[in-house]
Amino acid sequence: MPMYTCKCDGCGKTQVIFRHIASRDHELPECHGRMHRIVEAAAIQTDLPGYQSPIDGRWVEGRVARSEDLKRNNCRPWEGMESERKEAVKRAEAADAEFGKKIESGIADVYNGMSAESQRALAQL
Question: Could you tell me the superkingdom of the organism this chain comes from (predicted)?
Fold first, then answer.
């Protein structure tokens, strides 16, 4: 929502108000009479300020450079604790599944390496 500055002609006091563009001049605040809206330069931050990468110490300037820095160092942006927890569970489940496959493969290798007589004896247990 846009921010507007209003000024009192009587005392010079200013006040910042937040309004939709369509209602920017409706019901302006009052001080020593009705205040009027004044035009000021917009304050816009279009990009991230520069910083030194904590990963490799390079200087990072802007969002694109930040994304490249994260990608170059095999990292990803922080998305909050709940998201991190879900990612950790997902990775743990994938590791467990991979471990299970290796165990099954190892058991199959041992079984297939047994003599037919040993396999029959094992099947009777």
Answer: Bacteria
Count of C-beta atoms within a 10 Å radius of residue 81: 8
Query: Who contacts 102 (Cβ-Cβ below 8 Å, separation ≥6)?
Result: none
> Rounded to two decimals, what is the model's pTM?
0.37
| 73 occurs within a structural domain | no
pLDDT tens, the chain, 125 aa long:
688 899 999 999 999 998 888 888 888 999 998 899 988 877 666 677 888 988 888 899 888 888 999 999 998 888 889 988 999 999 999 999 999 999 999 999 999 999 999 999 998 98
Residue 117 covered by a domain = yes
Write phi, then psi, for 4 (nearest 5 degrees).
Answer: -125, 150
Q: Which residue range(s) make up the domain with 9?
A: 1-45
